[in-house]
Amino acid sequence: MTKKREDVVLILSIVIFIVSLAGFISTNPSITGAVATSTVGSSVDISRYFSISASTNLSDGIYFGNISTLPATDVNATDNFNYTAVSPVNNATLMAITVNTDSNANVDFCIKANANLHNNVSAGTIPITGETYTAFNLTNYTKPAWSGSSTAVTTSYVMANYATGIQPGNSSNWRFWLDVPAATGAGTYNNTISFEGILNLTGQSCS
Amino acid sequence: MKNKFNSRYGILIILIVFFILISSLQVQARKGVGIIWHAEAALVNEKEQYCLTYGIYNPWDEDVVAIPSISDNFKDIVIEQEVDKTLIKAETMHEAAIPVKYCFKTPKVYEEDCLLFNSLICKKECNEEQKNYKGSIIIKEDTTTDLQSGGSATAFAVAAPLELIIRCNAHSRDYSLVYLTVSMIFLVIIIVHLYNKFRKPKIDRYKEKLLKLQKKIDRTKGR
Questions:
Q1: What is the pTM of this model?
Q2: Which one of A31, A113, A204, B15 is CB 3.0 to 4.6 Å from A153, fit for a cystine?
Q3: In this structure, are A118 and A27 located in the same domain?
């Protein structure tokens, strides 16, 4: 009688073992040798490329010269109207960023400043709210627009007005101005202005 | 007649001079960075590594040092950026771009309903909105403007957009651990049962032991 009961327990155990093993295998298809599918990614099958370069005057920095009367408003960057030639290009800006012809995309430009203009000796600053710019895709005496239409730089990238959709072979031209408050101490003030070229496409934003 | 001829030449010369002036107004671009990319979006699974290769080029007439980078949105998930800083020779066109590989590993972003320890016997329903990482791959020009006086130094970069869309793979509750545990328990029970069933009865084992002992005694006496 005991032996018979033991046999029943053994049979039941075998049945449960087989069922649970089958359950485990069915929940892990890779054990059975079934093809394990893994979708890694999907992407468009075309290439985009563009290259930009700044004019020497812009890559050398944006200078505002010596300011001796304070407060000063809308002080021109030294290269704002520095192109000397016959009309109509006389007094054009010398600060530009060009999109190379070896590009297949139109480019928008974003701009930001790292900080206020700062004097390393006195630790004084000139607020970037007074550092303004305009841009345009051609340049002459009136383009890019003058300080009346200028926009202040900020510490995060923003897409610059009228510096969008620049086609390969063309340039985005820039002018800069600076406001210096009356309470600014004498000295040299610096910061860094960064430009970023991004793809001209609806929905794109500066990073 | 001669005057007409001269005035034509005059106009031609003025046109040439004007053309040269206009051409020279084109910025004196000397060096710059370019970026080439082959994908702007990718579907990736959670907790999976995904790599993309970008190209850096410099079609301008001076060598440039380029610094590959990424936007802040990707900083938490990038696990590999093959190149830190690289010199791109002048007149490197886009066909000859220098490859830079970026690898990302996405975290677990979708919720799972788990019965044990928040990680076992789980099911995923994917009712949430699809999640993604959106940002840019950035190539900066390594410039250190040595400012001569007050003003702003300038820095330049190009950026390619990238969106990593995290796929949510819905699945029913995963009972594999339960099945495995139960099968292991019953395997042990079966082995114990079989061992007890097929080993010799106790009396036979004692008899064998006794026989062995008897033989040993006999051998000892024989000496």
A1: 0.76
A2: A113
A3: no
